[in-house]
Amino acid sequence: MAETLYSVKTTQDAAPITTATAAQLNVLVGGGQTSLHSHAGGGGESENVVVLTVDRTNATTSFADITGLTFTPLANKTYIIEAWLIFRSDTAGTGIGFAGNGPASPVAYVMNVHIPIALTLYASDSMMASRAYDVGTPSVSVDTINLNLLAKIDCVLVNGANSTPFTLRFKAEATGTVKVLAGSVCRYRQVN
């Protein structure tokens, strides 16, 4: 007999979710993307999460993909994109920059990035906004090399007729090496 993991109480009787049912549900989500929420009846807003499983390194001042933090938006749909990026610089005097790149000819694309550079003062951070792909002013150097900090990204993509991958990107602020670490998360929601 399958073990009951939990049951849902509603105005109608609901069958408990068992280990066998949970295994069947697990097959529905995969490929590194987990559907967290969907409105009843389909359509509407849906939420997906992509988690970076390996560290990514960039030792240039040119944007490079954060391979693994990507998804393919549907044509003519709007997305809210959020990311929590664990990063570090292994070079004194070097900060980090973030951007996005995606389908050609979006109707609208805007991104805000909050990049802290120290743990001591809230004022020790960089706020950056962009209206175009591969645009982003990097932070100044971090307070301590080889220690983790957390950048936060908020983005809206109103996609046009193209359905090609959207990916988050990063670069070093100056000569040196920066990393985005495994465990970083990108969450995206289709809202129409």
Structure report:
- This protein is mainly β and 192 residues long.
- Helix content is 5%, strand content 45%.
Keywords:
single chain; 192 residues; mainly beta; Jelly Rolls; 2 domains; nine-stranded antiparallel β-sheet; three-stranded antiparallel β-sheet; 14 strands; elongated
Element layout with pairings:
Elements: E1 4-6, E2 17-18, H1 19-28, E3 33-38, E4 46-51, E5 56-58, E6 64-71, E7 78-89, E8 96-101, E9 108-116, E10 125-130, E11 149-158, E12 166-172, E13 178-180, E14 185-190
Antiparallel strand pairs: 1-2, 3-4, 4-14, 5-13, 6-12, 7-11, 7-13, 7-14, 8-12, 9-10, 9-11
What would a concise description of this structure say?
The chain has 192 residues and is mainly β. The chain has one helix at residues 19-28, and strands at residues 4-6, 17-18, 33-38, 46-51, 56-58, 64-71, 78-89, 96-101, 108-116, 125-130, 149-158, 166-172, 178-180, 185-190.
CATH secondary-structure class of the largest domain: Mainly Beta
Question: What is the helical fraction, as a range of percent?
Answer: under 10%
Number of domains: 2
Number of strands: 14
Alpha carbon gyration radius: 20 Å
What is the architecture of the largest domain at the second tier of CATH? Sandwich
Instruction: Using the alpha-carbon principal axes, give the shape.
Output: elongated
What's the SSE pattern? EEHEEEEEEEEEEEE
Q: Mean pLDDT score, rounded?
A: 81
Quaternary state reads single chain
Give the termini separation.
42 Å
